[in-house]
Amino acid sequence: QVQLVESGGGLVQAGGSLRLSCAASGRTISTYTMGWFRRAPGKEREFVAAIIWSGGSTYYEDSVKGRFTISRDNAKNTAYLQMNSLKPEDTAVYYCAAIGARYIGSLYYRDGGQYDYWGQGTQVTVSS
Known about the structure:
- By secondary structure, the protein is mostly beta strands.
- The protein has strands spanning 3-7, 10-13, 18-25, 33-39, 46-51, 58-60, 68-73, 78-83, 92-99, 117-118, 122-127.
- It is globular, with a radius of gyration of 14 Å.
- 32% of the residues are buried.
């Protein structure tokens, strides 16, 4: 089993930055695809970004491209989401998730149902 714990959320003004961390324990995530999702009040959960096991490929939801960067440090068993130029519409609970050691096509990285492990979430609030 893998446990994921997010941190780094908080309150920030529009245009500001935050860096979210997702620390994994219980098992190495070095072979896992990692993803970030978010759920805004009254909305469904949506995909934000994903990164494959090596960090060699990354995927983003269109509204965050150019502003958010997903990365990972397998030696630290941790994934990150650097969020710049934040907007009020980025306000949400952000969740880290992992796909276990199995292959799925990149097309499915946006599907939360493909992820095996989830963190508890961290709140990000962007004020205007």
